[in-house]
Amino acid sequence: MLRYLLGRIMATIPVVVLISLLVFLLIHAAPGDPADLLLSDEASAADIAEARRRWGLDQPIYIQYLRFLANIAYGDLGMSFKYSDPVIGLIGERLPATIELAIASLLIAVLIGIPLGVWAGAKPNSWADNLGSVFGFFGISMPSFWLGIMLILIVSGYFNWLPSSGRSTYGVGHGSDFYIIQSLLTGNMKTAWDGIKYIIMPAIALGTGMMGLVMRVTRSSVLEIMSEDYVRTARAKGLGERTVLWRHVLRNALVPVITVVGLELGTLLSGSIIVETVFAWPGSGSLLIAAIQSRDYPLITGTVLTYTIAFVVINFAIDMLYALIDPRIRFGK
Amino acid sequence: MENSATLEAEVISERRAVRSRRLRRALRPWLTPKVIGGGIIVLLLVIVGLSAPWIAPYDPNVQNLSHALRPPDWLFGANVLGTDALGRDILSRLFYGARISLVIAVMVVIISGVVGIALGAISGYFAGTTDFLIQKLVEVVWAFPPLLLAIAIMAFLGQGLENLILALVSQRWIAYCRVSRGQALSLRSREFVDAARSLGARHTRIIVRHIVPNLLPSALVIGTFSMASAIISEAALSFLGLGVPPEIPTWGSMLADGRTYISTSWWLALFPGLCIFFTVLGINLLGDGLRDILDPRLKRSGSGIG
Known about the structure:
The complex is a heterodimer.
Chain A lengths: L1 H28 L4 H5 L6 H10 L6 H13 L13 H36 L4 H15 L2 H15 L20 H7 L3 H37 L3 H8 L4 H39 L4 H10 L3 H29 L1 H5 L2
Helix pairs in contact in A: 1-4, 1-13, 5-6, 5-9, 5-11, 5-13, 6-9, 7-9, 7-11, 8-9, 9-11, 10-11, 11-12, 11-13, 12-13
Chain B lengths: L1 H26 L5 H23 L34 H37 L1 H15 L5 H10 L3 H27 L3 H8 L4 H37 L11 H10 L6 H28 L12
Helix pairs in contact in B: 2-3, 2-10, 3-4, 3-6, 3-8, 5-6, 6-8, 7-8, 8-9, 8-10, 9-10
């Protein structure tokens, strides 16, 4: 396992380096000089010349890239123009809100998608299956941002049941902590419930697409496994249908579901950028959009790099999970 | 007299029935509910998109501030689906939005398909170092969360049609490339490729004439799903203000307006969203139907591709 782990780490490093190269090239492909982009509009010609020297923009491009790479390696993503703070700190403050939203969406997708999929797969072509299939199609075809807007329109606007934006009533407007999780851990049910009220709609908006996919994959996977020999054996030895379904079928049907959830985490990550914008959720996604609107290029670069590296790390973790579950992956290719 | 007339009519209708039965038999594998339902929606979209300048009741960009934020007036009103904050007619903007969505999605799918199939075929056919380099590129581009690379491209390069298409193609070619590569890898050792090679065919000819045609059925299926995701992504980028310039009406930018006026004017957000939803639903249905017919092997991979 250790050898596999080390091998995978070695294979991931060049990918991260190449990602940084791609982002670096993108900054340089932007119209105008990077010094103009990376300084605010008020900078004078002397400031720009000074910045060019300080950032090494007068150096050959490969040296510039090496400096860029070295800065990233040290965790230095530059200073934001808009907030005049280090980019890395700004992103760190907003990440918990994004992570909490992602977890909530994931829970919705899995806790609703899997039972629906099992139900539909266990009784193919029944009304439950057809309803589930329609539901799954809707889930996949519904753009998360529109679903979010419709939820605001109906649930907040018409019925006035849930708040339409932000993260809490008690002034914890920032993203800098795991609001719900911390409230639950400290037993403060009032603030926990408050946080849950705010997270329900964004989580549904973000999780519905994945739920549709999870449901469809669970269905086809259950359907396939229902015709396996060991299912027949389990039935033959007199086990109840429910035991067969939940103990024998589901356990094996979950492997492709885990794969899809892993693959779709990236979609969830980028979907959160849009959903956060819809619900004014104070996470790193709305930070990125605000940065783009105010042309805060260091902040844009930093956020894009953070999301991408986070995605690489998630994929790496999923690979490791597979290797733990399935010894064939560790040993052979 | 009357009798023979009915007889003749019966014979004719019998012939017609036979003919239509034959037609139906030929079309039967294609006429699944999914293909029909999806096809009708897509056809409708194409018709609306192509004929927007003739069927739209107003110029989509003409502002009439005295008519701003009028609610829909279904039967007799001047603005059937209402107007936006600048008094522009929603229905007309939706028609023109269909046009833009369609043009962008088709271009993105075609460009991604050409790039993806070409790189995939080359990668699989030559194998070795070429394969390694192309797969490294795939790995790096794929390492970005979906849509994030597109957002980054639009953020750095700025708004505009060319940049938008580049942004949408940036990751979308990969689905074609992966599937094409896998198929090309197994095709390269087949007899007909060996035969072509022994006849002295050059690599280019083998790839273009013998490999690529075999990659097209799967590519068609991927292309359909890719079109659905391209429409959603384009709408998402426009919603974030990162799409085509604001003077061009798109469903995504209309939704962004709808978000702004959500507490007062529900129609601004409802209709463009419905358009996106039904379009994507139709294309997904069509793609699902096509996949069942053309390439059952792709069935397991879900529609998250592209």
